[in-house]
Amino acid sequence: ARDLNKDLIRDIEIDLGKDEVTDRTFHNGRQTKLGLDKTYSSFKMLKRIITPVYMSVLSRYGVKDDFIIHGTELKNFWGNVIYQQGGFSEPHIHGNGNTFFTGVYYPNGIEDEKEDLENFNKEDWISYNMSKEERQGCLCLMDGSRHHKEAVSPEFDKVYKPDVFATRTWVKPRQSLLLIFPVWMQHMVYPVMDNLPRYSISFSINRKK
Fold this sequence. Notes:
- The protein has 209 residues and is α+β, with helices and mostly antiparallel strands.
- The chain has six helices and eleven strands.
- The strands form two sheets. It has a six-stranded antiparallel sheet with strand order 1-4-10-7-8-6.
């Protein structure tokens, strides 16, 4: 999706050139307004690509197909960018009372053009235990029950897979990586240590009103 990613980045910058921008949770960065999927053809294309993916995710969570098709919608795409060293995002959650899943898509990554987009090894990009040195610029997903899990995990670590009792999930930005997760999951971006622009795109999966 390299060509689409270039178009997404271009359109994020176009939107950031307007007056309707904020830094809601980002420091040394900026965020566009919501609803880029209504304005730019690149975001409309991304929405079409993500739609069957989010439907599959909801189905795996046990949501009935009829409700997924007729009762949910993918909307409110917006762009985020960190421009310089020290930029980060505060811990936060997305959405409103009608949002039950959210997600992020990366039009560029830490290694950018060097990344092999044809081959994906989950363990190279997603970790349940990452050193402080490796965390720079990474997304951290925090489990709301982490304190309870920390109390019991020493006894269960040898029995269950790491992701069952993991309290934090670390994600290294990779071009074309798509993540979808429950809206209640608090998350943040650790400070970047370089001055290369770091782009991400967020969106909401809502119950139709």
